[in-house]
Amino acid sequence: MAPQHKHLLNNPATLVVDSLKGLVNNNPNVKFDEAQRVIYTPSNGSRVSLLSGGGSGHEPAHAGFVGKGLLDAAICGNIFASPNVAQVKKGLDLITNEKGSLIIVMNYTGDALHFGLAAEQYKASGKPGDVRVLLVQDDVAVSREQGTIVGRRGLAGTILVYKIASALSDSGADLDSVENVAKYVTSRLGTIGVGLDHCHVPGTQPGDAHLKESQVELGMGIHNENGTHKLELPTISELVDTMLFKIINTNDPERSYVPFKNDGSDEVVLLVNNLGAISELEIGGITGEAIKWLQKKNIKVKRVLAGTYMTSLNMPGFSLTLLLLPSKSESNSPYSSEQILKYLDAPASAPGWAWTSGKEPGIIGEKVDEVITEKKAKEVDLAPTDKKEFILAIQRACKALIAAEPELTEQDQIAGDGDAGLTLESGANAILKQISNNKLKGENIIEDIGIIAETVEEDMGGTSGALYSIFFAGLQKALRDSAIQGNKQTTSEVWSIAAESALNTLYKYTRARPPSRTLVDPLEAFITSLPKKGLNGAAEDAKQAAEKTKELVAKAGRGAYVNQEDLKNREVPDPGAWGIWRIVDGLRGFEA
């Protein structure tokens, strides 16, 4: 698998500024210092200011999180490169007030040096407000031996740190309190990432595939750093098991960073983060597996955040983060679980902040309260003039379709996608099964037509199943209306009026009208002729209409996408239309 190296941009050199301009256009609540690439909201002096940043390429982090209840400023470097000291100092000048500022950045050497130096220079300048720096280290893939000097890397857990710290700041807390809660949260974070391959930096030469098609890499960083292990592509459940176990395992002295007790008392916040190129469909599956795994381990999941928070450009991968909440047994904890969750749930508005429920996740399979009262239809009865003959007619029609499967399939292989015969045969067999199971009895026509409508929808599927089901649902309603009006039996007049009404119902949902080379051609011909010519005469008209489709240009349905000249030359009727003819031909001999 080669990394995706195509990008949509004007110029790699202006990509970061172009992106930030787009962000500001989309979010008029923020300001943009283009020269120093600072996204910020002006300080009103009412709270401790929070500043973050780093190399670009991790969007929406960090600029996308500037807004109410989150960051006051984000400093944006080049792709995967720390911003310089002048940029950070400009950010501090723009937002720092008497209450001070807390810088929250990921633990990378460049960020630690540049943000740290800017903080020291700001404090030395004598300007109002103190400035503190907190380096987030949450990557459990980095062993203690590897990180002896530099420490662990910062990853997506950083988002939780400044969300919780910001909520406390909004409450009016001082700098010491905001810094302390940020430190506490950092100490209880574990994150691990996985990638199907590395990402590609715009403006650089495309690289070779880093992994085989059958491999994933565990423990990758967010700047294309290699991971710790290459694994044969596992299932989601296997991969989630490997990743979460590394976070909660307290028996590995090299990577046991978070004080899990694993005794059934642990409570966590789960963050499932898309690293850039994983589909929402897959993220949903990953989230479900992660919640299920934690619940099986008797780890109570108090909150779930899932989405795109911190990317590695277009990396096809994701990371899992666990924030271990304070336990009730931790008598020396400065915070309670309820306090941390309150800060996490506090309102926030920024383009990058995804929706969260503010509640514990549900349990799949648990009993759901029934909130819809049962609605009963008015009981009406409409009997056939001949119960036995009614059922025989349905059987004949179904058997006619089944016998026609080979010719319908052959027609559809030329005029469509080749499945028409099998689709109609499936529906016919399902209706015959309803008769053999004594569910379709011929005693109440309204109920029987309803059973047919449901059966073809479930067993035929596709477009044909939907069209047939709509028609029969319309037929059922028309027959019900007839019974409500006082009719007791299905006379030929009742059938004719109901069939016309059902056709009008079908026309609400399809634009096809005769002549269109679709099933409506013989269907309308049959229904139009039924009052005057009876069943046999109407069936003959349906046959003629079906034959006529050999000469028609397809205006709708499967045939509209096929070479029209070829269809004419081969004199192939529309298989859907031919199926209608076979049905009404099977009904012959049944006179209501």
Automatic annotation (TrEMBL):
Example GO CC term: the record gives: cytosol
Tell me if Aminoacyl-tRNA synthetase is a UniProt keyword of this record: no
A molecular function (GO) held by this record is: triokinase activity
Where is substrate bound in this sequence? 55-58, 111
The organism sits in which domain of life? Eukaryota
Q: Which pathway does this polypeptide act in?
A: Polyol metabolism; glycerol fermentation; glycerone phosphate from glycerol (oxidative route): step 2/2
Which PROSITE patterns does the record match to this protein? DHAK, DHAL
- Where the record annotates domain DhaK, the positions are 11-353
The UniProt record lists the DhaL domain at 388-589
Record: active site:
223 (tele-hemiaminal-histidine intermediate)
Q: Which Gene3D superfamilies match?
A: 1.25.40.340, Dihydroxyacetone kinase, domain 1, Dihydroxyacetone kinase, domain 2
Reaction catalysed by this chain? D-glyceraldehyde + ATP = D-glyceraldehyde 3-phosphate + ADP + H(+); dihydroxyacetone + ATP = dihydroxyacetone phosphate + ADP + H(+)
The record ties this protein, via SUPFAM superfamilies, to: DAK1/DegV-like, DhaL-like
Q: Which UniProt keywords apply?
A: ATP-binding, Glycerol metabolism, Kinase, Nucleotide-binding, Transferase
Q: Which GO terms describe its biological process?
A: anaerobic glycerol catabolic process
Q: Which PANTHER family match?
A: DIHYDROXYACETONE KINASE 1, TRIOKINASE/FMN CYCLASE
Q: Which family does it belong to?
A: Belongs to the dihydroxyacetone kinase (DAK) family.
Briefly state the protein's biological role: Catalyzes both the phosphorylation of dihydroxyacetone and of glyceraldehyde.
Protein name from the UniProt record: Dihydroxyacetone kinase
